[in-house]
Amino acid sequence: IYRLQADGSVVYDRFDYHRRAVETDNEAFFLRITGVGDYRYEGADLGILVTRGRSMTTDFQLNDRAGAWIRGITEAYEGQGLEVAHAEQGPAPGSFKIH
Length: 99
Description:
- This protein is α+β, with helices and mostly antiparallel strands.
- Helix content is 12%, strand content 17%.
- Strand 1 and strand 2 (10-12) form a beta hairpin.
């Protein structure tokens, strides 16, 4: 269970294994999907966040509280760049024949 602070930061509060343990609008249950060493990419799910209360406005836009949760959870993740693989230069097209 994580808690949303007044300044918009998110902190770990306590362990629970069930989403129903969320008691207030400033708490959320976070089920992490990714693990250490997993490959992340744009659009990949980091986890599932279950909150109480509304997360969208009446015109279906994320509200400020939802934005704070998103920022807080993503700030808890660290990543490192991938090593760039260098392929050897292959033969030019048409420079060999298969018999």
